[in-house]
Request: fold
Amino acid sequence: MDYDKAIEIAENIYWVGVSEKEAFFRTNSYLIKGENESVLIDPGSIPQFDIVSKKVLSLVPKEQVKYVIASHQDPDVCSGIVPFKQNGFKFKTIAHSRVSALLLFYDKNLDLYNIDEHNFELTYDNGKKLKFVFTPYFHSPGAFVTYEPNSKVLFTSDIFGAFQKDWALFADHNYVEAMKSFNELYAPSKEIVNFSVKKFRELDVNTIAPQHGSVIKKDLIETMYHALETMDAGMFLENAEINVLKMEVMDEIPVNILSDIFKIVKERSETVIGKERAEEILKETVPEGTQLTYDLLKKFIENVKNENSLAIAVMKVPLVNYIMDNSTKLKGKVPGLVKEIIYM
Ligand SMILES: [Fe+2]
Ligand SMILES: [Fe+2]
Reply:
């Protein structure tokens, strides 16, 4: 697959995003190509303008881009509206009014179309429709997703996004862990997540197209819905951390617990540093045949952290969950190392 070009993900719907080889966090933009009017979804950031616009212009002339959707106000999602305008694109910016209020700080003369003032719909290109679904606080107060009913594509912006060093445009089963590693940190709470997923379940969806990570095809959608519905997120982590920090420390960790923790740490590291690099660091830190010890595990974590400091953040939820689930085995104590990770 040539990621330097626009790629069709459904009929007349194209990925026009950015794929940097070295990144662990990439951004996706999409173009719905109409006959006369096209819609650009989440145009990306200012520094990415050249890449996204080149792909858009390989599909349609600039006069055809009549609408740009800003699913929320984050700079990675839509600061690119500024260079798009500066380069002669003339479009309406589609957003929720809670988002629009902030978009005006990018450009106070934006031609805005507020979905909440238009029955959460857009009619474009001689009668085609887009439906907008409000997903408040996931993760922005005005966040929404876009449903294209013809190809049944759901453009979900940050929802279903991922930290994913080993990226491919289309998701496979490994995507669950990558998706959780991002959404656990950005979703405010389980309640907020489930409010939105319930709305997605009411739609007939063939493809999920998020703003980070990979495109999810039909066969994996149920797995991804379930992963989000059962995932602990946001405030859970903050509260659980406080509880774990109050627990008494266990000095000696039983070998089986040590190896479980090691497994969690390694699996999560892979999402932000990649499987290959995680395995290299593992070999350097714990040479084959060496007995796993507390100190080696600690060294492994530090080496991973040196590679990407976010590795610590993405380890926390599964580690905290593990401690809670095994509290009887651990006699209500927390291994010192886990406590240290939480403080990191
Ligand atoms: Fe965001
Ligand atoms: Fe984002």
Q: What stands out?
A: The radius of gyration is 22 Å.
